[in-house]
Amino acid sequence: MTARREASAPPVLPGYAHVRTLGLGGFADVFLYRQDLPRRDVAVKVLLAGSLDDEVRARFQTEANLMAQLSHHPSIVTVYQADIAADGRPYLVMEYCSRTGLAERYRTERISVAEVLRIGVRLASAVETAHRAGILHRDIKPANVLTTDFGWPALTDFGIAATTGQGGGATVGMSIPWSPPELLAEHPRGDERSDVYSLAATLYSLLAGRTPFEIPGGQNGAQQLVARIERAPLPPTGRDDVPAELHAVLERAMAKVPELRHPSAAALGRALQQVEADLRLPVTPLDLLDDGTPHADPAPSQGGTDVADATRLRSIVAVPQPEPVRGDDDATRVRGPVTVQPQPAGPGFLTPPPPPPEPAPVGEPDVADDDDTRRSRTVAAVVSGVVVLGAIVVIAAAALRPGAGEPRPGDTDFQETGGSAVEAVVPSPHSLEGERDAAGNVTFTWVNPDPRPDDHYLWGVVTVQGTSRPEVVEQPTVTVPAAQSGDEVCIEVSIVRADRRASAKPAQVCA
Q: Where is the composition biased (Pro residues) (predicted)?
């Protein structure tokens, strides 16, 4: 058994007082310091003296710059300062997350489905924010998710991150149990969907209490794990309270072929939101900034008012949620605004009811103020009340509808699908069969249980090395030529919708 090394000596930092050691890493140690001004506790990550080569220094500088660029997000650890200590060691001063992180929790606690969904949506918004800034994390795992003082997950350690343009080719420092197959290949290549895989693998660990392809009591070395990641189906979590739709979401996000996964972290977050809605849980907001959709200009100036001074109606991208019941732990959270679009008055535009009639003057009763008149006034008051109540019901229903306030159809990660925040899981093909002819060609056919306009099918040949490069066909049939079929040929097929959603689990058959 390898002896645990001692922590390096904490550097002397002007304006900070060392408190204790928080953690030890392969390239750096993390210490708790108390900052003098402003007075607060901070976490300081310090490079080890023996790791000060040019490559490690460059990675450390990259981490500082990337985390500072993303620090505005509530689920990404905030960086306050980066500098070089008097002894020559670079260091980062970061937000101190005092609560227990996910690495410690998933092995020792049974984390509820509701909390895992909440963590998943918040981390999805953090990863999506990084991707929109052109940054791949490449090492999402429980150990890199801390917990803030208010219980929010906070993504950290962008030390091996890359820009999306680089494709995530290098794999230095990656963690095998949460890595997708394409980054474990001889020539690794990844993109945003690689982070989607790792995020889903992290959520699986929170539910199962183990890494996704770990066999309790079995052989779980690097070679065995890589083989299972590349070929084995995702095993059940072993928990009866994990709904089938959540397992289907994780299966799709962890598909062996990147094209079968959710196309973005935001899409994975919306799928998790749909599971929350199906379970009648409060829907966790996706914390995403407006993606730059042009705002509406004000109406032309009238009455001499300068157009430049006119008030503009701004569109706000937000995912609202129902108000929690009293006692819910989200009761004190600031609510996301509901999207309000400028609308002209006209037919169908909701206007307030007319004011009630003026009361009759005090004095002699008017001859026309008889019983019929009083009854008509009563009816008018009741009708006005019904109109107001109806308006309230309509507004409340719009605000509580799952997906209200979703990004507009112009959002590249969202396709309008009848007003639902997330469509139901795409089914798998059934009745998949293969028949070999005299020449050795194998023709496969299958049935689409829920055909939609513009449905396509993604298929590939499955071998011991994994699935071949998938191909798209329009009809539910494909022929594998004899030169590729051999003694036995296996394929997997998924349904692909017009909006690029695919079957949560491909159908497989051998012939």
A: 350-362
